[in-house]
Amino acid sequence: MVQPCFFVREIPVYGDAILAPMDGYSDWPFRSICRALGSAMSYTEFVKAEDIVKNFRRVRAKLTYEECERPVVFQIYGDEPSTLLEAARIVQDLGPDIIDINMGCPAKSIAHRGCGVGLMRTPHKVGQIFGLLTTHLRVPVTGKMRLGWDDCLNYKEIAKIAEENGAALIAIHGRTKQQGYSGQANWQAIAEVKALVKIPVIGNGDVRQVQDIQRMKEMTGCDAVMIGRGAIANPWIFAGLNRAEVPPAQVQATMRQHLERNIAFYGPEDGERLFRKHAMQYLGLQRFDREARKAILKQRPSGEFARLLEQIHAELTLTDPSPGPHQY
Fold first, then answer.
1. Alpha-carbon span 107 to 120, nearest angstrom
2. Which one, of 24, 45, 21, lies nearest residue 275 by Cα?
3. What is the pLDDT of residues 279-316, one digit of tens each?
4. Active site residues
5. Cα separation values, 13 from 2, 40, 97, 110, 266, Å
6. What torsion, rounded to 10 degrees, do the Cα atoms 33, 38, 43, 45 define?
7. Can you list the domains of the chain with their CATH numbers?
């Protein structure tokens, strides 16, 4: 019998590699593909608590999931404890396994308003939010955070506050707000958090190859590893394959499946438009000529797009059958 890798309160998690929540990427079409390949949990894109409270119908689609994705994690963000609680109560009725508080988004439009990583500037609010939500919700409440800001690396304080106020898990990206996605992730800081708290810890940052999963676990002691940008071009990482090891036929089949799901979810026009960024990653077009990139980005009648992708993929496979290790 397969044993869980860890538990989020009473919820078992059967795997140690997890797709990170990413705005504009971890929607249902991509998330479902990663889950089928082996991602151990399904985090939704983040949703603003205020939008849930004021106009839930507008953001409802971001919380779409299938039963086979469980455990499902709804990620929400905000800076007002009462609004976050109201939003969490609304989305809890949709049946997620877990509700996660975003304390890591570095975007100026979010962080400079006290949300995302901006919430780490106000430790007292972090305590209020977790205390309030864990008291009034049925499902476990977790948090995803960063190291803090360059002038205030308070990741250990925030992790401890979250735990003391009922958080069931902490995920930590080993970069500061100012780093964004540049520089090197600090895995030692992840190890410090793991040594400090008793709840499960998920490490995040600079996991681009299959080997990095075990390496991070060994260096930090974390319970699982979260993969963001490294999974966009290589969702097969959840199946234990580096990008260079994925057969061309499998790339084409996954790309076709992803496009079909995008069209089913968003409709033909939006589905194809929103898939273009994924197509660029699947095909590794950052390494190829400008004309191929322009062809992908050009608007064209429905149905032609899929044929174009297959044609470009076939041409790239003939000219360079190995996608190389730098497709992330």
1. 14
2. 24
3. 888 877 545 556 666 666 665 656 677 677 677 666 65
4. 105
5. 11, 6, 11, 30, 30
6. -30
7. 6-237 (3.20.20.70), 244-319 (1.10.1200)
